[in-house]
Amino acid sequence: MKYEPQGLVSEDQILRAALAELTSRIPSEWEADVQYETVSDRLRVDAVVMIKAPDGQSVELYVEAKRSLPLKDLGSIISQLDRAIAGEQSNGQMIAKVPLVVARYLAAPVRESLAARKVSYADATGNIRVQLERPALFLRDVGAQRDPWRGPGRPKGNLRGRSAARIVRALADFRPPYSVPELMKLASTPSGNTYRAVEFIEEQGLLTREEGGKITDVRWRDLLERWSRDSDFANMPGMTTCLAPRGLSGLVNELANLRERAGRFALTGSLAAAKWEPYAPAKSAMIYAERPDELIVLANLRRVDYGANVLIVPVNETAAFERTQVLDGVEIVAPSQAAVDLLTSSGRGPEEGRALLDWMERNEYVWRR
Predict the structure, then answer these.
(1) Looking at the structure, do residues 31 and 77 belong to the same domain, yes or no?
(2) Sign of CA dihedral 40, 44, 45, 48
(3) Domain count, the chain
């Protein structure tokens, strides 16, 4: 790749680097000419790329360059390009004109949204998609999949860790609007972690903030599904696999008699989801526990390496105990936690997780505060 993570500070540098990536991929028998100078004053765009096919057909790409491009700004940028194009077409110009968005780095959700809107894009790392009708041309290439300029103090590019879990759970469980400081109280997370996570989630197009910074909308289902990519119940540190000799129904009865005797614990996965959206008879139990060793003894479980039907995870992740409820004498996690745990489990777990998310969409007033 040609980009240098230490460079490309100004929009002009970014513009030239991204267009260099694009024009280097134009077929050799085609022509590409880039106009930078005087374009912005006349057309209110940053550059115009003239592409000419071997048969003489031409097209102009009207370019808008940004140092960074959050998903929420796409609409205004595309509208700006559309206005510039409409103004030129009204002057009787016959050459086809299409918008092109460029940036130092375009995150995957931004690229997907641009492609869905049929808007061409290019970034300085080589992520490129140009689709033209006349002349017919399709260019697509893949560059960096993570922002190479993301430095210390910036969002870390994933939703792993205790703070991220608490923030995602709070965003899903509480209806906006609320400010970031208010979210900090809801999630019980430090200021820096909260602001960085909100910035990352906003960059992914999963929440919307108004000009003053207040969170006004959360795409909670997409957010939970995104969180599931960075979470994995079955591979959490300290997990213990056990066998319940009396089966899962016998285990539930045992657990109902153990409240406050084996430390705090909560069911998740299939046994929890069945309380809201029964899918199929549970084949295994998933449990968060403060004191797993005591729970194993008091619930008459047997530690096994194979044939386990009970998975117990020590609660290093305290978000699991947020907004739990007690049903039939047993504490169970909130739907948002159960759904993600199912999405990251094996077998039919992901199907159960999606079924639970469907129920959550239909019954948002039941579980979301």
Answers:
(1) yes
(2) negative
(3) 3
